Amino acid sequence: MKTRFIGNFPSSAIGLGEMPLSIEGRPDREQAIRTIHVALDAGIRHIDTAYAYRLAGEEEAHGELLVGEALRTWGGDRDAVLVATKAGHLRQDPAGGWQQNGRPEHIKEVAQASAKALGVEAIGLFYYHRPDPNVPFAESVGALVNLLDDGVIVRAGVSNVNRQQIAEASEILGGRLDAVQNQFSPAFLSSGTELELCAELGIAFLPWSPLGGIGRAKTVAGAEAFQQVAAGRGVSPQQVVLAWELAKAPRVIPIPGARRPASVLDSISAVDLTLTPEELAALP
């Protein structure tokens, strides 16, 4: 597998989005752990989770606890795996709805809880999950500064942000903004401008739902173009989508989710698929 660099730290060019292993429709725990192990055995060295990834009404930090267990029971070098988690987005509604809480004290409290759930002394990468319209963005990002300075987290990121917020976060963090995680896929191209800014600033851009979202990966947007390239290469359209995203900039790291080991293995194959200029020109 090729290796790329996200900011100042190495990671496999494709990560694993843990969310499908924790929310509605998730597999049983044994399959979830096996899926993470297969990803790690295949060379993935970046796992993305969040404090909010759980079923409605269930224990918070389910996803983090799952990742922590998977790493403890894996036979490889756990120190080589970059685990990212997030704070600021919650599922406190019994019906399963999502809410924001960007208060600095909440973000710092969650970071401590997340480190405990993951079983680490410091979190490798920690995101402000989603801007809270009721809290000034600068105050929320300021909590990341405190967490970096206190050694609770090693690297900081922001998620679901626009260009102005990326620039503001980078300034507040004094150049210590390592990653931006936004939705980006053939079905959701509007974050392309944030991807371009990250490339200009040397910040990693991690597309979430890079295949279109949970339950939508089988029906790739713009399917005909991707299927034509896939047919010519003898690979899946999903691999072509991921290869297309990787070609956008050197520090683009898609984090497709998976519920089954087979899905992980298909996604990983995209790392070694280099699309030609002609193929890229035929895609969105």
What does this entry show, briefly?
With 284 residues, this protein is an alpha/beta fold. 37% of the residues lie in helices and 15% in strands. It has helices at 29-41, 62-72, 104-118, 137-149, 163-172, 192-201, 223-233, 237-246, 261-268, 277-281, and strands at 3-6, 9-12, 16-17, 46-48, 82-87, 89-90, 99-100, 125-128, 156-159, 177-183, 204-208.
SSE layout:
Layout: E1 3-6, E2 9-12, E3 16-17, H1 29-41, E4 46-48, H2 62-72, E5 82-87, E6 89-90, E7 99-100, H3 104-118, E8 125-128, H4 137-149, E9 156-159, H5 163-172, E10 177-183, H6 192-201, E11 204-208, H7 223-233, H8 237-246, H9 261-268, H10 277-281
Parallel strand pairs: 3-4, 4-5, 5-8, 8-9, 9-10, 10-11
Antiparallel strand pairs: 1-2, 6-7
Notes on the protein architecture:
By secondary structure, this protein is α/β, with parallel strands linked by helices. The protein has a single domain, classed as NADP-dependent oxidoreductase domain (TIM Barrel). The protein is built from ten helices and eleven strands. It has helices at residues 29-41, 62-72, 104-118, 137-149, 163-172, 192-201, 223-233, 237-246, 261-268, 277-281, and strands at 3-6, 9-12, 16-17, 46-48, 82-87, 89-90, 99-100, 125-128, 156-159, 177-183, 204-208. The strands form three sheets. A seven-stranded parallel β-sheet has the order 3-4-5-8-9-10-11, with helices on one face. Strands 1-2 form a two-stranded antiparallel ribbon. A two-stranded antiparallel ribbon has the order 6-7. Helix 3 crosses helix 4 (137-149) and helix 7 (223-233) crosses helix 8 (237-246). The longest helix is centred in the middle third of the chain and has 15 residues, at 104-118.
